Amino acid sequence: MSSLTHAIEIYLTELLNESDAPESMLSIRRKELAKTFGCVPSQINYVLRSRFTQEQGYIVESHRGGHGYIKIERIKQDTSENRIEHLEKIVGETISWQDAHRYLSALQKRGLITARERLLIEVALRHCDELGVSLFDLSPHKRETIQAELLKRTLRSIMLA
Amino acid sequence: MSSLTHAIEIYLTELLNESDAPESMLSIRRKELAKTFGCVPSQINYVLRSRFTQEQGYIVESHRGGHGYIKIERIKQDTSENRIEHLEKIVGETISWQDAHRYLSALQKRGLITARERLLIEVALRHCDELGVSLFDLSPHKRETIQAELLKRTLRSIMLA
DNA sequence: ACCAAAAGGTCAAAAATAGTCAATTATGAA
DNA sequence: TTCATAATTGACTATTTTTGACCTTTTGGT
Lengths: 161, 161
Description:
The structure is a homodimer. Chain A is mainly alpha-helical. Chain A has two domains: 4-74, Transcriptional regulator CtsR, winged HTH domain (Phenylalanyl-tRNA Synthetase, Chain B, domain 1); 80-160. In chain A, 61% of the residues lie in helices and 10% in strands. Chain A is built from seven helices and three strands; from the N terminus they run H-E-H-H-E-E-H-H-H-H. In chain A, a hairpin with a 5-residue loop joins strand 2 and strand 3. The mean pLDDT of chain A is 89. At the A-B interface, helix 6 and helix 7 of A face helix 6 and helix 7 of B. Chain A binds a DNA duplex through residues 3-5, 29-31, 39-46, 50, 62-70.
C-alpha cells in the first residue's frame, strides 16, 4: 500500500512533531532505523535525499565512525513559502548587478536579511561575475543568468533557515 | 551515549571557559586525563588532533619527560586584523569543499559567524563549483583555487563589517 | 657521562558508522 | 502497453573513533 520510503518519512516527521516547537530536531542511527524497518541502510539515505532536503525545510547533518549519527532539523516556517514564491517572481531568469543591489537593499531595509548577509551575497555575486568576465569571457546575458541563479539560491537558503 | 572523544572535548572546553578571558589557557597531564576518562593515553592525542587544531582556533604545546605536560591555548582573535590574518593563513591558495565546510563550522562554533551566514557562504561556494564543473569543465585544482578566493573574500568582508 | 624512570608522540590496525553509485524492480500516467 | 519516474538493493567506498605496541625526549640520580 504505502511505500517503505513513505512509511519512514511518516515515522520521522512524527518524531519531529513530538516536541511541538515549529523547529525541532532529532538524531538517529542509520543502521538501527534500517533495522526497525527491515531494509538496507542505504534506503535511509534515499529517504533523506528525497524527503528531507533543504528545499523542503530541513537540514540534515551526519557523522560516520564510532557513535555516528544522522541529525535532522526542521527549519521551515509558515510564511517562508510565500516569501520564496515572491523571490522567484521578482528575480526572474536574469538580473543586473544594479537590480540585485537594489533588491538586497530593500530586503535589508525590511529586516529580512542583515547587513552582513547582504554583504556576503554581494561579494559572492561579484566574484562569480568577475570569473565570468576574466576567465571565460561570457556574454553579459549569460552572466546575468548566473547571477540570478546564485541570488535565488542564496536567498532561498536563508529564508528557509 | 556520545563518544568518548566528544566527552573529552567538552571537558576541556569547559575548563578553558572557566577563566573567561578572551584568550585562555590550560595545562594537563596526558596520563591523568586519560585515567579520569578510563582510556588509553593516545586517545588524548586523538582528541587534540581532531578537535583542538589551529584551524579551530587553538594552539597546543607539550613537553615530555619528568614534569611533562600538555598546554592548550585559545588563539586570541579580538580584533578584525587578527581574524583576517588567521583566515589568510588557514585557507591558503586552494581549499577543498570538505575543508571549507569544516572551517566554517569551526567559525560558527566560535560565534564568529551565524548559521545563516555560514549557509550563505556554503551555497555560494557550491554554486561557483557547479559552474566550474558543468559549464567550463575546470580541473579540480582550479576549482579549489576559485573556492579559496571566494571563501576568503566573503569572510574578509564580514569580518571587517 | 650513563642509566633508569617518567613523561609524551606516532602509527597502524580494527571496529563502528555513514555515503555513493549503479543495477534492478515497481508504479503510475499517457 | 509503454515509457518515465520512483523505490529498492547491495557491493564498494570513506570517515571517525578506539586501542595498543613501539619510539623519543627530558629529568634526576650515581
